[in-house]
Amino acid sequence: MERIGIVAFQGDFARHAEVVSNLGALPIEVRTRGDLSLVDRLIIPGGESTTIGMLMEREGLISAVRNRVESGMPVFGTCAGMILLADEILESEQPRIGGLAIAIRRNAYGRQIESFETVLSAPAISPHPLEAVFIRAPAVEAVNGQAQTLAEFEGHAVLVRQGPILGASFHPELTDDPAVHRYFLAL
Ligand code: GLN
Predict the structure, then answer these.
(1) How far is CA 27 from the centre of its chain?
(2) How many Cα atoms within 13 Å fall on the side-chain side of residue 109?
């Protein structure tokens, strides 16, 4: 059985674990480098990217994850997790793993629409429209280099892949459709 690590400091890691086990894989909570060494793939959930990044750095997980990804481990970041995977976080020096050639802006949707739901078309992921929940979401301002846009919303990429790295600015774990997780488990 494939072992799917889920960074478990903050945010809705329990819901990711549920989706992963529904898809027949084994979720493992990751808080230390020892935990990381047990897993085949890694999910970094939403939450507060500064907090998750700081705690990961304290545990040596920023560089440990970067090394694993450089040697091919698939990683999936949702929302704050995607921020941590971005090469460029506009107007921020916060710790990040990087590797995904995008420029991202945190909390990019104004206060009035801090959180919203919509439907996305992502033909590479699913023949059906994807429901997407955005919560104080970042906006991808540029997709560079080898990074590929898999879904867009209002002119911004919201699902991006670069080799083994997948990032979503929304929360696919909060809907009943496991299509994005299934895609990640097949990377
Ligand atoms: N606003 C958070 C951040 O900037 C991300 C929000 C989320 O993960 N739902 O880190």
Answers:
(1) 16
(2) 21
Instruction: Find the CATH number of the domain harbouring 8.
Output: 3.40.50.880
Active site residue 128: no
Q: Note if 79 is an active site residue.
A: yes
Q: For the whole model, what pTM was predicted?
A: 0.97
Cβ neighbours of 148 (radius 10 Å): 14
How many domains does the chain fold into?
A: 1
Tell me which residues of the chain have a pLDDT lower than 50: none
Q: Measured in angstroms, how far is the CA atom of residue 83 from the centroid of ligand 1?
A: 8
DSSP string, 43-93: EE-SS-HHHHHHHHHHTTHHHHHHHHHHTT--EEEETHHHHHHEEEETT--
For ligand 1, residues with CB inside 6 Å are 46-49, 79-80, 83, 106-107, 135-136, 138
Domain range for 118: 3-186
- pLDDT tens digits, residue range 77-89? 999 999 999 999 9
